[in-house]
Amino acid sequence: MFAARMLLEEAARFTWLVRDLEDEDAFVQRSTRYFDEFRARKKTTIELFASNGVALAAATRLFRLPDNVVERPETIAKGRQPLPSIDEMLLLMGVPYPEPGWLPVAYSLLSQVTHSTPIGLVHMARYRDGILSAHDNSPEMLALALDVACLGSARLLGLSGLMLTQGSDEARQYALGLEKRALSVHTKARLVHWLD
What is the pTM of this model? Predict the structure, then answer.
């Protein structure tokens, strides 16, 4: 559940980042917002650690990447604009589906389990032969998690390949193949979770 939710969230961010790749100026602006968001989060977290007794040098070291990773620039744009809400990005990602609003609902349901809400706990308890099995996924939630994990993984891998190869035909075919396989999983999984 946790991994499926994380994959969906990151795939939604990536989908938002690379939409309309033909408009280079818009892509540069979205890239700046995308990376500024993570630079700002990193800065806030380091400051939080430092204000709670962790030495600043130690807090900074926790987030230092290996020397072979280029991390420039470190500055955050003035008047930084935060990323759109996760719901907005999920709606954008759900455009190819007959019911594009299913992804925010899927994310919300997975969040119920992640945050151990009453709804989430109901989906993590099963009675079998009168015996309570806690921490057992309901079939509906398991189908939803598998569906979302396949979709998120396909989108992340496909878009990464396209970006790393400047949109090569081979990468396009690979991305389309992944999306088709994810759609095949979705077609089967929705017979259990009934979203979309």
Answer: 0.83
How does the average pLDDT of the chain come out, rounded?
Answer: 89
Residue 85, SS3 per DSSP: coil
DSSP 8-state secondary structure symbol assigned to residue 125: E
CB atoms within 10 A of CB 20: 9
Whether residue 73 has a cis bond before it, omega within 30° of 0: yes
How many Å apart are CA 133 and CA 156, to the nearest integer? Answer: 34
Residues in the chain: 196
Confidence band of 170 (pLDDT split at 50, 70, 90):
very high
Token pair belonging to 125? 């308890």
* Contact call for residues 121 and 134 (beta carbons, < 8 A): no
> DSSP state, 22?
T
The contacts of residue 146 (CB under 8 Å, 6+ apart) are: 4, 185, 189
Whether the pLDDT of residue 143 is over 80: the answer is yes
Residue 182 has a pLDDT of 94
CA distance 131 to 139: 17
Dmax of the chain from CA atoms?
A: 61
Amino acid at 129: D
Statement: residue 96 has pLDDT above 80: no
CA atoms 83, 87, 88, 89: torsion sign: positive
Burial profile 142-175: b = 16 or more Cβ within 10 angstroms, e = fewer: bbbbbbbbbbbbbbbebbebbeeeeeeeebeebb
